[in-house]
Amino acid sequence: MLVIAGLTGAILPFQGELGHLVAPQVWNVAPPDARATPLTGPELARRVEAETGGTVSYIPLVVEPSRARAVFVSAHPGEAPLGYDEVFVDPYTGAIRQRVRYADLRDGPVNLMPFLVSFHYSLAAGQWGRLLFGVAALIWFLECLAGLVLSMPRAGKGGRGGLRQWGRAWTVRRRQGSAVLIRDLHRAIGLWILPAMLVFAWSAVAFNLDQVHTPAQRALGAQGLYRPVTNPLPAQGDPMTLERAVDVGEALMRQEAARRGFEIRGPEALSLNPYAGVIGYYARTSLDGPTRNGSTAVWFDQVSGRPVAFRPPFGSTPADAVDKTTRMLHTADFFGWPYRVLVSVFGLLTVAVAVAGFILWLRRSGAGRVAPADRS
What we know:
By secondary structure, this protein is α+β, with helices and mostly antiparallel strands. It has helices spanning 2-11, 15-22, 24-27, 41-52, 112-122, 126-151, 163-168, 178-192, 194-208, 210-219, 242-260, 318-330, 337-365, and strands spanning 58-60, 69-72, 86-89, 96-100, 264-273, 278-285, 296-301, 307-311. The strands form two sheets. A five-stranded antiparallel sheet has the order 1-5-6-7-8. A three-stranded antiparallel sheet has the order 2-3-4, covered by helices on one side. Mean pLDDT is 88; it is low at 370-376.
């Protein structure tokens, strides 16, 4: 499991760049003329819905001019499935360039990186895969804690501490044979990256094992980063237009910024939830920290525009903030490309620790030995 997670985790920090590289015929877009400008997010959503007959619930408000826009789409309630759940749209014309089932390799190379994402988190095996990986992540986290305790210096004879022995545990002896080298690599690399391993292991539990993560977070005082938004008094009537929703969302975000003292850096997306009768407006703000993605949100009634909820990106409690931070560290959403490189290196080091540990286990169990009678 660690080998799979480490190898795929070393690739995924650069999934955007690699995805564009392996499927340029889908992603790369040239403007029809020098004066052309991309369509707005609401207009793109309308054109996708008109061409597919489906519905779009998440509408990006920032369009990258040189890239196709990936848009998730689903059938209207009670209607037959569309046969796909994601489309890639020309940002200038709204024309659909390809329709795919997310992460399905049968739909071509454009799904290679989404497949690796799915494989990284669930072996591309749905809920059972998530459960399996979640249990493995919990075991990994507990092993990291045990390793931390076992690695601490012990008192020697006469009450003297074992700091000198503990210092040796962080080093690798390279001239005492392969057995010593493998053992030292397993122990030393594990100690070097132990804080990161704790973060990645627990965040993997957060992603995959809600049965454990949610009660633990609640015990620490968390309210939940992704709890549903409720609208106890939804207004009656037709939902407002998407353009009107953008205007209402911008105005409400400005009010929250003035009240709470944060800076708005740009729009991000609209999220439509007709079942709750609400619309979410997401923006990139100073509350989001060192990331390009905006997850500061205001939610409002889809008919009247009455504010319903404000959701800061790191939640409302310290436990929520720690949860969000560990998740973003896991997905390399912080600090730009230097941190993404570090995450890739961490993935490879995790593989090295796992492989060295497996070799040590084989040797200790006798599986790697050859009986004297079998030697030639």
